[in-house]
TrEMBL record, chains A, B:
Gene (UniProt): CLCN7
Domain CBS: 723-781
GO cellular component terms listed in the entry, alphabetical order: lysosomal membrane
Annotated keywords: CBS domain, Chloride, Ion transport, Membrane, Repeat, Transmembrane, Transmembrane helix, Transport
Family in the record: Belongs to the chloride channel (TC 2.A.49) family.
Region (Disordered): 1-43
Alphabetized GO MF terms: chloride channel activity; chloride:proton antiporter activity
Protein's membrane topology: Multi-pass membrane protein
Name the UniProt record assigns to this protein: Chloride channel protein
Location (main, coarse): membrane
Keyword tRNA-binding annotated: no
Pfam families on file: CBS (PF00571), Voltage_CLC (PF00654)
Spans through the membrane: 123-144, 172-193, 269-291, 356-376, 396-415, 469-488, 494-516, 528-552, 558-579
Protein's cellular compartments: Membrane
């Protein structure tokens, strides 16, 4: 034990060899992020609330002691998986380069021209990301369109055949079976092979851009699994997730260019991928850039933004070109995005000042409905986490939802009997179903079209196309079905269903308004459908700036920008009053250490001293190999970063911080046997190149795979040229908001806390900051768990 | 001298009392930023190039010695005002709060509800900024419109009168006099009263958002002076600056709310003001936000962005409402911005893939023409700095330009004789001038309309409205006139003139193309006018993302987003190959310590040790009042931030860094006599409140105005509770890009460089970072001067 490492505790004075600590970060459990792992959590830190404001003057050593003794006592407790936990299984990305000697030497060798080449390569990669994203989006669009057509034909043929014979129940059965079987295939893939493909993908991307390493999220394999499961989501829900999957492309490109093998560059390219995905989905390049920035950016860099914008533009252009050719009108570039809301002609449909209070009222409604949606989905997700965590159960649930959707749809079609003249209508798949000849059943149409098409119909069909009863029933049913669907083990998002729900009640609202005002010309139901869609989506996901721009670009109209913004803002404010956004909720339910934009407002009372993890495992600048191996092998404290201190401190020299070295770097050093015998310290140790580190990126071998003989254990390793000699530090007195700002703005992974003499007293990592949250009763602290 | 202060040099071992140093920042010379101050510079640091890469192993003390002895030798040299200088007169904003005990105590007292109130106040202020900006923009619009109408009528009446008599020369004289006299008034105001109102205001705002304190830029007085001078710019040049002036509004609001009296909040509100200004000018709320972010943001904060967006939206909405009412069509909100490019109907005018190479070619042309414009303006500006630096000369030059503009216009109108049928044309002020009845002179129209209207005409007039010769002549003349005008002592920008030049040659290009392709339907001259305008503006100012969105919003059309982006990107890349953007050029010519987005790529060879200012004047935690007064009174080194070190270091305790205190804080302490007698150190010194500091903000009294008696000089002052106990620090080994990133991302003003024992070895301020630049031959270092 004495050999393990020197540990420095709170004040740097009393060192002990206790293994228990919560410093550094832990390695992830290697399987998926699914709820299956729930319930196995161990609580590592006991105090749910720090006694805020009382800590500053108490004896610090006593405080440590108390923490340390409490830890083992609470450990055996089982903690239910809930949002008051923070999982230790997520690692952090390192947006800060390790500026060690090797890195600096390489950078100094590179001249100006070479830097220009690197910059050009970055642009090329962004262009490739854009092109590939566009192509994948095209592929998805074409497949979805054909599948929807196929489904329509099969169902229609059968209904035609059996309606004649009166065998309606058989039609229902057929439809339900069809739905359930396609969902089954998609669900099987997600549940058994690639859990990360579940859901819309947006929460995962949000986390990744925030700096949390989500396993598998940027792997090419994910894309391969996601693609086939995508078409099924058109049956019965949304279609956004499709394009989000293209986020996985950057990693392919990233393999090709060796220089870019670092978290910094990778995250930049993922940002570009996210922007390109949104851009292709909605034909909204600016909206894509803003999405990427709103969700991910920490430090806004102009050059990076331009590259992201470039990727977005290329992506929507590629999609546009290919789809234009596919639809036979080559060269005219008429299909800017997968999801096109149709053009609102602003000359015909402006808005007047009197309508603004109405829009705000719609925002309020959207906020309340969104909050209701999120609350229902929260309970449902908690239920799923507790009881439906086996893959086979998940598949069964998905199939059940599909069957129920079909049944509900069928019953509603049967009951509503809302027949509309087929002439002059723009619907793609009119179903006659119980209607007179020359008419179509509008409820059936709403269920049978892809949801994207239904949204467009609700926006643009002339007044009088929909029966208010139909819309009301449809809203009600679809609301609950969509809520049930989100979180299922299929690749299905919430974007399009939300828009559809909102468009339905918005149109209903518009119709009522026209009725109340006796058919005033300004009460165009299509306009209110648009506002309702914005309100509902805003109430659920709580995005504002990027969503405003996406809606503006998807409708090809800037006139409605102001009312859309008002509606989104109102929906967000109202919704936030009740519960948080759907994505944030799911991120929290996954116990992801997500860093928000700012530290909680009332956290000025906490200082780095109270926040940091301690004691910290430090390494000496010239360290025994055996010690390094023991530290790395220690499974109870899987630290990823180790402060390096001076080797032989004497009276005149304090053991001040000299640098920081990462687990991955140590592993590469051990693998290449970079050390010298203790008796022969003057020998030069083997020199490594930066390439050796890059080759190992991003999957460094585990320490167990590296064999170190007993003789080698006694050798010494000089860390000077591999450690980062200038890690960022904060003094113990710094307040939490200050520490947070530094950590967040620079995208750090490790932040060393030092005392007045530059001695290491603690370490701040992502989870130390993410665990403080503003709850209903003020500042609260989440518990850490291994779930 | 021994009493002055403890100074810590490179290694912290050898202290000396030499007054010469370049640490900290200097107070500004209090008068304007005009070129009048040129030529009086003193060079403080001698070495134009650090011997890069050689420093790491030399004896540091020797290095210091060398620097110190060289300084006095070079001091008397006169340095011509050029772009290789960095002025010491600009101060930096402090985006980092001084987290001293008072601040923390206040923050800790404030509960959650109070923070919500603060947040609501922020929103209210943003709304007020938006409303006021909108109103100011309305006022400007109405005045400009009426003045343009007045001018048109006066000139037309006279021309009509005198043309009959053949007295053309009198008409010319009248026109020229009219132009010159209005310009004179504007010029007099700018030259003698408020120099900061000169130009477009964009470079000033860029600097402010970058963190440079430009005197007077956010003062209400500036707005008052700017407003009356604005109308004149419609005669003969641009009209953007108008709206930019509204940036000055935030400071008014800012006076009302006491809590917000810090640089952090002020800068946020100025960002909102900038966004609101652009938003009102172009009816481009998203473009405004992006402008503000592209030019200013360092750390992207979601909440801040939303507030800025809100202010933008409110501003364009206010403008829209008021102007709609003014124009008699209340409620219909048909005037989204001051400058409206008219709606491009995308159904009629899409673009095809074949046109993309043509657009790129136009981007190249725009880039070359833009570079030419900037190069010409550069020489002109150098000429002005050297020879036209007296205010009266500046006024004469402005009048000369106005008269020449009128003359050139007149001659061209006379020569061109380009008559167009008046029917079906949309021009507001058709001038018959030498044309047959029922026709108007299109050259005269181009000169007589406000430039905004001319741009719209060039975009939307049907093919055949312009004679190619007219367009060519107009482009040529206007190019040189605009180039001459920019930088004059009037409030005139470059935005609209650039658009006009670009629209003219773009339309000419479109006409030629239609001619060459024998009138193909796709070669619509209006579309090419738009692309030409984008190319020219992009080539001059080099904005991309925000400009793309501004153009998209101003044309109310998202279809052209992709080609506009391509054109802007190409223009930027081509232009950057020759010279930099106009705004950056002027910022550099003003020797402003402007921080770009990243450190120069090849600067990894420099470390904090080589970059920092040294020696640093440090204060002890408990310091003698006399020492503080002496340090503050020392005019040779007007430092603004002082590291605080431990009072009585002994063998076991090093004199490590304890905090950082600002000049402004020290002055408030002295003013309130916050000190105790040396013999009575146990007495509690007077307690101050944060309010005492805020009341003094932002104009702290000079040290000379504070009387300290001889007895008081012997008292002691305890800085512990007023200093920031956790200033950001970097180790000496940190590379320049690393230091730069920390400084830029957090918007710092002072960054302390410490050694391994946490002892102060140097200080990095804005000018230490801004002076490294990537020149043609690699890294170059600017000299510092008092200009």
């Amino acid at each position: 034990m004495a050999n393990v490492a020197k540990k420095v505790s709170w004040s740097g004075r009393d060192r002990d060899d206790d293994e228990d600590g919560r410093a550094g970060e832990t390695t992830p459990l290697l399987n998926g992020t699914g709820p299956g792992a729930a319930g196995s959590g161990r609580q590592l830190t006991p105090s749910p609330f720090l006694r805020i404001g009382q800590l500053s003057n108490v004896d610090l050593n006593e405080e440590v002691h108390e923490l340390e003794t409490e830890v083992p006592r609470q450990r055996p407790n089982e903690i239910p998986h809930n949002e008051k936990l923070l999982s230790l299984k997520y690692e952090s990305l390192d947006y800060d380069n390790s500026e060690n000697q090797l890195f600096l030497e390489e950078e100094r060798r590179i001249n100006h021209a070479a830097f220009r080449t690197v910059e050009i390569k970055r642009w090329v990669i962004c262009a490739m990301i854009g092109i590939l994203t566009g192509l994948v989006a095209c592929f998805i669009d074409i497949v979805v369109e054909n599948l929807a057509g196929l489904k329509y034909r099969v169902v229609k043929d059968n209904i035609d055949k059996f309606t004649a014979k009166g065998g309606l129940s058989f039609s229902l059965l057929l439809w339900a079976t069809l739905n359930a079987s396609v969902v089954m295939v998609g669900s099987l893939i997600v549940a058994f092979i690639e859990p990360v493909a579940a859901g819309s993908g947006i929460p995962q991307i949000k986390c990744y851009l925030n700096g949390v390493k989500i396993p598998h999220v940027v792997r090419l394999k994910g894309l391969c699994y996601k693609c086939p499961s995508v078409p099924y989501q058109a049956v019965p829900t949304g279609g956004l997730a499709s394009s989000m999957s293209s986020l996985k492309l950057p990693s392919l490109l990233f393999q090709i260019f060796e220089y870019f093998r670092r978290d910094t560059e990778k995250r930049d390219f993922v940002s570009a991928g996210a922007a390109a995905g949104v851009s292709a989905a909605f034909g909204a390049p600016v909206g894509g850039v803003l999405f990427s920035l709103e969700e991910g950016a920490s430090f806004w860099n102009q050059f990076l933004t331009w590259r992201i914008f470039f990727a977005s533009m290329i992506s929507t252009f590629t999609l546009n070109s290919v789809l234009s050719v596919y639809h036979g009108n080559a060269w005219d570039l008429s299909s800017p995005g997968l999801i096109n809301f149709g053009r609102f002609d602003s000359e015909k449909m402006g808005y007047t000042i009197q309508e603004i209070p109405i829009f705000i009222f719609m925002g309020v409604v959207g906020g309340i409905l969104g909050a209701l949606f999120n609350a229902l989905n929260y309970w449902l997700t908690m239920f799923r986490i507790r009881y439906i965590h086996r893959p086979c159960l998940q598949v069964v649930e998905a199939m059940l939802v599909a069957a129920v959707t079909a049944t509900v749809g069928f019953v509603m079609i049967y009951c509503s009997r809302d027949c509309q003249p087929i002439q002059g209508s723009s619907v793609a798949y009119p179903l006659q179903l119980f209607c007179a000849d020359g008419e179509y059943n509008s409820m059936a149409t709403a269920f049978f079209n892809t949801p994207e098409k239904s949204v467009v119909n609700l926006f643009h069909d002339p007044p009088g196309s929909y029966n208010p009863m139909t819309l009301g029933m449809f809203t009600l049913m679809y609301f609950f079905l969509a809520c049930w669907t989100y979180g299922l083990t299929v690749s299905a998002g919430v974007f399009i269903p939300s828009l559809l729900i909102g468009a339905a009640w918005g149109r209903l609202f518009g119709i009522s308004l026209a009725y109340l005002t006796k058919g005033s010309i300004w009460a165009d139901p299509g306009k209110y459908a648009l506002m309702g869609a914005a309100a509902q989506l805003g109430g659920i996901v709580r995005m504002t700036l990027s969503l405003t721009v996406i809606m503006m670009e998807a409708t090809g109209n800037v006139t409605y920008g102001f009312p859309i913004m008002l509606v989104l803002m109102t929906a967000k404010i109202v919704g936030d009053y009740f519960v948080e956004g759907l994505y944030d909720m799911h991120i929290q339910l996954q116990s992801v250490p997500f860093l928000h934009w700012e530290a909680p407002v009332t956290s000025h009372s906490l200082t780095a001293r109270e926040v940091m993890s301690t004691p910290v495992t430090c390494l000496r600048r010239i360290e025994r190999v055996g010690t390094v191996v023991d530290i790395l092998s220690d499974t109870s404290s899987n630290h990823n970063g180790f402060p390096v201190v001076e080797s032989n401190p004497d009276a005149t020299q304090v053991a001040g911080l000299r640098g920081l070295i990462l687990r991955s770097q140590l592993i590469v050093l051990l693998k290449h046997k970079v050390f010298v015998e203790r008796t022969n310290l003057n020998l030069v140790q083997r020199r490594l190149k930066l390439k050796d580190f890059r080759d190992a990126y991003p999957r460094f071998p585990p320490i167990q795979s590296i064999h170190v003989s007993q003789d080698e254990r006694e050798c010494m390793i000089d860390l000077s040229e591999f450690m980062n000699p200038s890690p960022y530090t904060v003094p113990q007195e710094a307040s939490l908001p200050r520490v947070f700002k530094l950590f967040r703005a620079l995208g750090l992974r490790h932040l060393v806390v030092v005392d007045n003499r530059n001695e290491v007293v603690g370490m701040v990592t992502r989870k130390d900051l993410a665990r403080y949250r503003l709850g209903k009763e003020g500042l609260e602290e989440l518990s850490l768990a291994q779930t």
